[in-house]
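Recall that a protein's primary structure is simply its ordered list of amino acids. Everything else, from secondary elements to tertiary packing, is in principle encoded there. The following example makes that idea concrete.
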Amino acid sequence: MSSTQARRETAIETPRAVDMKLEVVVIPVSDVDRAKHFYGGLGWRLDADFAAGDDFRVIQFTPPAPGARSSSARTSPRRHPAPPRDSI
């Protein structure tokens, strides 16, 4: 068998699946206390609730699903998130 035949007979490896997970989702909200009540009502565990002055507050929850990580909600009372724009 020649080296050319050996190259042609070499098996091509198929790509393996990549295990991808969504780690953190940041959700801008206008009312942090309402978001905290909502996610707590879903049975999610509150991991963090801290504020940096009057303009910024973060709450972080972990959902009860196996393998799930966490979700965060943030707000600034003076800067509300802009509504989504219509796409053309």
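The chain has a mean pLDDT of 75. Strands lie at 24-28, 45-51, 57-62, 70-75.
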